[in-house]
Amino acid sequence: MKSGLLIPACLSMVLLTALPLGSQVDNAGAQPAGADTTATDNRMLTPPTVSGESYPVAGIESERSNYLRYGLTFSAAYSDNVLGGISTNPVSDISYSVWPTIALDETTPRLHSVLTYSPGFTYYQRTSARNEADQNAALNIQYRLSQHVTVSGQDSFQKSSNLFNQPDLALSTPVSGSAQAPTVAVVAPLADRLSNTGNVGITYQFGSNSMAGANGTSTYLHYPNPAEVPGLYDSSSVGGSAFYNHRLSKKHYLGVKYQYSRVLAYPVGAQSEVQTHTVFGFYTIYFKPTLSLSLSGGPQHSEATQTPMPVSRSWSPAATASLGWQGQHTSFAASYSRIVNGGGGLVGAFHSNSANGLASWQLSRKWNVGASANYRIYKTMTPFFLLSTPGGHTVSGTASVERLISEHLSVQAGYTRLHQSYNGIALVSTFPDANREFISISYQFARPLGR
After folding, report:
1. Residue 243 is part of which domain span?
2. Beta strands in 45-131 (DSSP E)
3. 3-state SS class at 7
4. For the chain, what is the domain count?
């Protein structure tokens, strides 16, 4: 049954690859979340609350298009807790990783596409049985079907045994302005994991100040070896939304959005399902072209089922807030959401509050600093479900500094801190903390396309 869940997770990738790539007309309408467009064609923006996109992670000076990038990264890291609850004592280890990377960023008058692929190979000094081969692939595409209709989509796939073992970790977790179910709720320090997140959307500007659109999303989370994640379980989700967006003035946008989601979790011998229906009223203000604030809120109805338990139904308020700023050498994004959701490795429905932040600074031509922080708290709404847990919280953060040695060579060092507290989940109840220090050397090339 679980194999069938890959269909919705891969649907967005199929749709994206079917888009034509050769058409050429006037300017592309695709813009980063929070960015402005030129006013010459009176094109509206799609607020972060409904776009499904993430805020930019780099300053404007660092962004380039029509480039082929490729390179190689070597890294070494020390972790003081690599096994979590599957060991009676905390186990520390040093790991060594190599990451080949290739990225294609292409822009035409109608199309903007970014394709990134980075396989990874990691070797552990003491726990050699956990040596791993990772896969990271991401596709982001925006295509103007006509002057007023734009199609966009994103898909991200990851195969890993260590969630924090990623190149450029401080900036690898994007911040979104919309309310979305988390792919991972509880972090397994060292466990095989497959995940996929996809999103496809369309927007139609049918008036000078009126826009409508729709989005479809899917997520998939699978732990191939359940013994590595005691207390966590596979999950998947599908969802969709529709919105109306009205431009009050150049800076002010107002609208309404309906959002539906269906989340499944697969504990041993059971299956839980959480469905939610949410109506958001939203408001976005663009203080300037690269600085925006978005707010949304409204009622949410949830329904949780697990045979043979009684159905749990409830109404609760839902809300989101996000801020994004992209300067010449600096980028900052932060978001907060309060919603009911499920999955992410847990069983049942949960009241969730989550906050995320990300920042990058180009201090000088040779120095860059990055930082990210995440906070999530869950409280169960279905304590009577089989294998349900009361909930808990996760706090994590990463800070890094990068030094450019030459045009192609750079060195980066950083630190990651993780704290988790979840009653009833053996994976984290014994050793709730993990610390990781890392250093990496990267050799990167960028070649312009069509020049």
Report:
1. 2-448
2. 67-79, 93-107, 111-117, 120-124
3. helix
4. 1
Q: Tell me the two tokens of residue 289.
A: 């072209």
Q: How far is the C-alpha of 138 from the C-alpha of 119, rounded, in Å?
A: 12
Region label for 375, one of left (φ > 0), alpha (ψ between -120 and 50) or beta (otherwise): beta
* Longest CA span, the chain: 65
Is residue 27 a contact partner of residue 38, using CB atoms and an 8 Å limit? yes
pLDDT of 415: 94
Residues contacting 414, CB < 8 A, separation 6+: 169, 170, 370, 398, 399, 400, 401, 437, 438, 439
Digit-coded pLDDT (tens) for 292-327:
999 999 999 999 999 888 899 999 999 999 999 988
pLDDT, residue 87, reads 65
Cα–Cα distance between 43 and 39 in angstroms, integer? 7
CATH number of the structural domain spanning residue 114: 2.40.160
Place of tokens 């927007």: 203
The proportion of the chain whose per-residue pLDDT surpasses 90, expressed as a percent, equals 51
**Plot region of 66 (φ>0 → left; ψ -120 to 50 → alpha; else → beta):** left
Report whether 394 contacts 417 (CB < 8 A): no
Q: Nearest 5 degrees, angle CA 95-CA 101-CA 103?
A: 150
Q: Which residue has the higher pLDDT, 200 or 182?
A: 200
Q: How far apart are CA 251 and CA 141, in angstroms?
A: 26
Eight-state DSSP code of residue 58: S
Contact indicator for 295, 309 with CB cutoff of 8 Å: no
Task: Place 239 in a pLDDT band, splitting at 50, 70 and 90.
Answer: very high
- Nearest CA to 357 among 173, 169, 167, 181? 173
State the pLDDT at residue 88: 66
User: Residue 293 burial (CB < 10 Å; 0-12/13-18/19+)?
Assistant: middle
Angle at 95 between CA 92 and CA 101, to 5 degrees: 145
At 41 the pLDDT is 60
To the question of pTM greater than 0.90 for the whole model, the response is: no
pLDDT bin (cut points 50, 70, 90) of residue 260 is: very high
